[in-house]
């Protein structure tokens, strides 16, 4: 520390204090490392994706792992292939309701669990973790047996014949995804700042109002994260879906895994590329809209959905 | 239903698996009849073999008498196993507008699904050795062969086999063998026997060997080399096989049923225990150049057969029969062979098969080779085999 | 409320009833799902584990302990899985924690975008992503080829080794680690950090005594969400591991699909579930002991 620098307010005797410039350099290093690490991770995440996209233009006639020159023909194949359309459609029909249900049930349960006694809470925790512990193939087969037996009983008693299809897949997926959302929301809730909530009720706000204006915005990142994960898992699931699906309800993963025997073609890559293009495109548009919107409203540096919602 | 009756009923069901199967099948029939009645007005044409009487009952499922062909057909099959040309032709001719083609990745999935109680499909295409199990569990409908006249075109060698001695349940689809695939330029010589294979795996091809991930096929190698039946359940014989497998384990690069053709083509592997599929695809160029090929080992090997079956509670039996007959028409079956590159058991169809494929001995083995082939049995219940298989899998790569 | 009632009195009976009703309504849907789609199937597995293999595979009612005995005789896959899953969880932690920290505290307005970008790759197919890793890590034009050329080792390979499986595992399960960490770190009050710095604490001390305790619930959730499913994984070892790494997931597939011995597979699964359950309970107890978690309702 140079003599010309006046003593700073932070100049106390607490342990671990570092000298000024050294602290800045250290801070700079850490910041740099954090940023670099983040970039590396995204590169790691998207490297295979880039390969997927590149190989969608593969001119080969069969297998997707040998490069034979560039061509867009597989996009044409994918666009004309009714089976792929149906599979994609099925994937959405299953993933979206499942995500909505799982997010709703999980959030509700997370909130409700704060109000119950310790025994009930521990039981619920045990169930939540068990649902994650059971290996997929085991839950897939046992759920299949359960459905089959249940269908038989229902038919015998009520004469209604139920079938395997979208409903059975959604029902089966909701189990794991509810646990996922539940865990995420509870992690967020735990240790959350209660003072705002207490202040709110001290001011005689109704519980619903407190929830809507204080709690819900604070939980929103966890709820959105849960929804995204639930959708993703359902969309990409293979094992459970294989065993509880029925005729005509094959999802995209089922179609793709089925192709293994004869060789996965670049058609799959083309489909994946189109899905990517669509979602990234939507993201881009969303970001642009938010920026444009916040500029219009004169807010500085806006564009963060969560902060906009929170400010509302 | 009174509560007491219901619980008694449930107890009865859970006590016996066979009862549950037939119960579900009968239940399926009730539902199926309702669906059939609803479908009859669906604008479908009548079946060409109309007028046949109902087939006798098997483990519960009686197909309704021949009538109008439904407008839907639900097929559960290997991926890409039916030529699209044939599918379209069938749809057009019989007015089956909704041809649902779902795929499974392997027999085990199909069986597990059926065993768990899944239903809803009309036609499936398992490998023949699993058919007896399916029959016993009541998963299949007994076929009325009079409704499938083209069945007569199939070579008698493939009928009356142990998996369907009275020809009641399956229609042969195609067949093939398990053998050795090789890269000539990477090996001292072209392997001709399992003994050659065994020697090369541990020497020149060490670290470059791939086995398919299929228990039944892998066991063929040691058992046949030792001169035993590939379906052996003898403890001492299996123990000897175990030794051979464990000898090979450290030299194996991968256990892979799907990309072994790629590995062979790229040179990552020089020898494989597998099937003929890759010959027409990844290895196509190398085969033409004479650098890659397929051997049916001299000690003999297994032949597998894929078969069409009709499931017990098939919702669209008339369309199913129409399909089973249609697929055996010579020109249709010929087109199938040209598309799949697997041998057809239908003699009349050979006239429509690409002569190059017909001449390919890997796909259509000559008669003297066929004599050495043993049909595979379902040995999955043998605990000793399973234990050996697990031990082998754990020791791969050393 | 009558005027004579003191203001500080507790809720009326009606209010208590309404409150209980609300609580029940909140946990009912999840509860029902657990009852019918977790407990019921598990009961089936439990019953099956005492049965015998039907002649053609599947389950035949019986009551024997043979399956459990046999499961104990074949412990290898379990041990291998423990090692791989631990390595995978640690890998996810090392990769995911700094990432979650960065997004939660440094990314500002781009938080949501970065989080979304984290899951978008998983909307492509799992299989072709894994195949892409085969190309990337491959021996000729891939990473293994380059590294091998650099080291002068022609036989250098990544695919087929446990390391390739590890990469695949970390890649596939990263979001499950990052999301819980993110949602806990994101609500961290920045003023706490600033206060800590104002009081002169070093970065590391701040991290250890302020950030880490707050992130702990997320960390615990993340490690569990990652470790547990890795124990049951089987596709990645098959494809990237060339089938050379035999994990619990593979073992269950062998039992249920290849041997079609549902009782044997059920016994192994029950064993796995039990051990995992005990492990998770112990882990949670260990982490949460001494932490006063005051569960006051926010609703």
Description:
In chain A, helix 3 runs antiparallel to helix 8 (207-236) and helix 4 packs across helix 6. Chain A is built from 12 helices and no strands. Chain A has helices at residues 20-55, 73-80, 82-112, 118-133, 136-158, 166-189, 194-202, 207-236, 239-244, 252-258, 266-296, 305-311. The relative contact order of chain A is 0.12. The model of chain A is unreliable at 9-16 and 308-312 (pLDDT under 50). Helix content of chain A is 73%, strand content 0%. Chain B has 398 residues and is an alpha/beta fold. In chain B, strands 1, 2, 3, 4, 10 and 11 form a 6-stranded mixed β-sheet that branches. In chain B, strands 7-6-8-5-9 form a 5-stranded mixed β-sheet, with helices on both faces. In chain B, helix 3 links the parallel strand 1 and strand 2. Chain B is globular and about 65 Å long. By secondary structure, chain C is mainly α. Chain C contains 12 helices and no strands. Chain C has helices at residues 13-48, 66-73, 76-105, 111-119, 126-136, 143-151, 162-185, 190-198, 203-231, 235-239, 248-258, 262-288. In chain C, helix 2 (66-73) packs across helix 12, helix 7 crosses helix 9 and helix 11 runs antiparallel to helix 12 (262-288). The mean pLDDT of chain C is 85.
Question: What does the secondary structure layout of this molecule look like, with pairings?
Answer:
The complex is a heterotrimer of chains A (312), B (398) and C (299).
Chain A: H1 20-55, H2 73-80, H3 82-112, H4 118-133, H5 136-158, H6 166-189, H7 194-202, H8 207-236, H9 239-244, H10 252-258, H11 266-296, H12 305-311
Chain B: H1 3-15, H2 17-39, E1 72-77, H3 84-94, E2 98-103, H4 107-116, E3 123-124, H5 131-136, E4 170-177, E5 179-183, H6 194-202, E6 209-211, H7 215-225, H8 235-248, E7 252-255, H9 260-266, E8 271-274, H10 277-280, H11 284-288, E9 292-295, E10 302-310, H12 317-326, H13 330-340, H14 355-359, H15 367-371, E11 374-375, H16 383-395
Parallel strand pairs in B: 1-2, 1-3, 6-7, 6-8, 10-11
Antiparallel strand pairs in B: 3-10, 4-10, 5-8, 5-9
Helix pairs in contact in B: 1-2, 8-16
Chain C: H1 13-48, H2 66-73, H3 76-105, H4 111-119, H5 126-136, H6 143-151, H7 162-185, H8 190-198, H9 203-231, H10 235-239, H11 248-258, H12 262-288
């Amino acid at each position: 520390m140079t003599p010309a620098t006046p003593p700073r307010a932070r100049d106390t005797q607490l342990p671990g204090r570092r000298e000024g410039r050294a602290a800045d350099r250290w801070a700079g290093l850490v910041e740099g490392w954090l940023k670099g690490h983040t970039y590396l991770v995204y590169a790691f995440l998207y490297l295979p994706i880039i390969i997927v996209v590149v190989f969608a233009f593969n001119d080969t006639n069969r297998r997707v792992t040998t490069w034979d020159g560039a061509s867009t023909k597989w996009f044409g194949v994918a666009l004309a292939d009714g089976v792929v359309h149906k599979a994609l459609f099925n994937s959405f029909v299953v993933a979206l309701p499942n995500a909505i249900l799982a997010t709703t049930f999980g959030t509700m349960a997370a909130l409700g669990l704060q109000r119950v006694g310790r025994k009930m809470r521990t039981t619920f925790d045990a169930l939540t973790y068990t649902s994650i512990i059971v290996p997929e193939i085991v839950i897939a087969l046992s759920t299949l047996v359960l459905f089959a037996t249940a269908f038989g009983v229902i038919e015998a008693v009520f004469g209604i014949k139920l079938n395997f299809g979208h409903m059975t897949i959604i029902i089966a997926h909701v189990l794991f995804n509810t646990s996922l959302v539940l865990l995420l929301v509870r992690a967020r809730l735990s240790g959350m700042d209660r003072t705002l909530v207490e202040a709110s009720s001290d001011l005689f706000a109704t519980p619903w109002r407190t929830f809507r204006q204080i709690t819900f915005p604070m939980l929103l990142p966890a709820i959105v994260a849960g929804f995204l994960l639930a959708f993703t898992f359902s969309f990409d699931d293979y094992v459970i879906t294989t065993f509880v699906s029925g005729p005509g309800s094959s999802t995209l993963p089922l179609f793709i895994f089925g192709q293994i025997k004869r060789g996965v073609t670049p058609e799959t890559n083309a489909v994946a590329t189109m899905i990517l293009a669509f979602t990234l495109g939507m993201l881009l548009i969303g970001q642009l809209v938010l920026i444009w919107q916040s500029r219009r409203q004169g807010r500085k540096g806006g564009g963060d959905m969560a902060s906009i919602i929170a400010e509302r | 239903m009174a509560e007491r009756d219901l619980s008694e009923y449930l107890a009865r069901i859970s006590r016996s698996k066979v009862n549950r199967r037939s119960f579900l099948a009968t239940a399926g029939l009730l539902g199926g009849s309702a669906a059939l009645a609803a479908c009859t007005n669906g604008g479908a044409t009548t079946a060409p073999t109309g007028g046949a009487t109902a087939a006798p009952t098997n483990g519960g499922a009686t197909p309704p008498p021949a009538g109008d062909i439904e407008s839907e057909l639900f097929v559960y099959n290997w991926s890409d196993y039916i030529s699209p040309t044939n599918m379209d032709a069938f749809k057009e001719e019989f007015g089956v507008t909704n041809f649902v083609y779902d795929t499974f990745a392997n027999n085990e999935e199909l069986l597990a699904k059926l065993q768990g109680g899944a239903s809803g499909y009309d036609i499936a295409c398992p490998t023949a050795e699993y058919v007896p199990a399916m029959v016993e569990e009541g998963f299949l409908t007994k076929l009325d062969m009079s409704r499938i006249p083209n069945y007569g075109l199939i070579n008698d060698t493939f009928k009356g086999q142990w998996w369907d001695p009275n020809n009641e349940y399956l229609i042969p689809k195609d067949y093939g063998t398990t053998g050795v695939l090789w890269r000539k330029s990477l090996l001292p010589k072209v392997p001709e026997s399992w003994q050659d294979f065994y020697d090369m795996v541990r020497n020149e091809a060490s670290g470059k060997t791939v086995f398919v991930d299929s228990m039944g096929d892998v066991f063929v190698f040691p058992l046949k080399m030792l001169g035993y039946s590939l379906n052996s359940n003898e403890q001492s014989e299996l123990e000897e096989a175990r030794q051979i497998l464990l000898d090979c384990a450290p030299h194996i690069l991968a256990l892979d049923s799907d990309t072994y053709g790629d590995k062979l083509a790229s040179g990552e592997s020089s020898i494989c225990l597998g099937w003929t599929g890759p010959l027409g695809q990844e290895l196509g160029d190398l085969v033409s150049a004479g650098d890659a090929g397929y051997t049916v080992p001299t000690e003999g090997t297994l032949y597998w057969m894929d078969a069409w079956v009709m499931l017990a509670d098939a919702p669209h039996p008339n369309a199913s029969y129409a399909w089973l007959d249609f697929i055996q028409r010579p020109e249709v079956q010929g087109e199938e062979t040209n598309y799949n590159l697997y041998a057809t058991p239908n003699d009349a169809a050979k006239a429509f098969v690409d002569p190059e494929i017909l001449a390919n001995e890997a796909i259509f083995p000559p008669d003297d080779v066929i004599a050495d082939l043993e049909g595979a049995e379902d040995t999955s219940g043998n605990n000793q085999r399973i234990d050996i298989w697990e031990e082998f899998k754990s020791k791969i790569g050393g | 409320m009558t005027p004579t009632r003191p203001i500080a009195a507790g809720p009326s009976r009606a209010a208590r009833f309404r409150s209980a009703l609300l609580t029940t309504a909140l946990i009912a849907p999840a509860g029902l799902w657990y009852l019918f789609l977790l407990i019921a199937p598990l009961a089936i597995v439990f019953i099956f584990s005492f049965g015998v293999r039907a002649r053609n595979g599947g389950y035949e009612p019986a009551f024997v302990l043979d399956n459990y005995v046999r499961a104990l005789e074949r412990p290898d896959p379990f041990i291998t899985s423990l090692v791989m899953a631990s390595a995978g969880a640690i890998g996810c932690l090392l990769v995911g924690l700094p990432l979650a920290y960065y997004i939660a505290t440094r990314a500002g307005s781009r938080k949501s975008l970065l989080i979304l970008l984290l899951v978008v790759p998983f909307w492509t197919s799992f299989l072709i992503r894994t195949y892409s890793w085969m190309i990337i890590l491959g021996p000729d034009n891939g990473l293994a080829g380059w590294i091998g050329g650099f080291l002068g080792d022609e036989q250098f390979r990544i695919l087929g080794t446990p390391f390739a499986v590890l990469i695949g595992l970390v890649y596939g399960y990263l979001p499950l680690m990052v999301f819980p960490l993110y949602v806990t770190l994101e609500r961290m009050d920045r003023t706490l950090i600033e206060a800590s710095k104002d009081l002169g604490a070093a970065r590391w001390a701040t991290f250890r005594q302020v950030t880490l305790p707050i992130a702990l619930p997320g960390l615990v959730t993340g490690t569990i969400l990652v470790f547990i499913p890795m124990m049951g994984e089987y596709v990645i070892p098959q494809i990237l591991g060339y089938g050379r790494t035999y994990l619990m997931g593979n073992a269950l597939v062998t039992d249920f699909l290849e041997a079609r011995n549902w009782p044997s597979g059920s016994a192994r699964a029950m064993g796995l579930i039990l051990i995992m359950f005990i492990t998770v309970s112990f882990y949670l107890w260990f982490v949460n002991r001494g932490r006063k978690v005051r569960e006051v309702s926010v609703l």
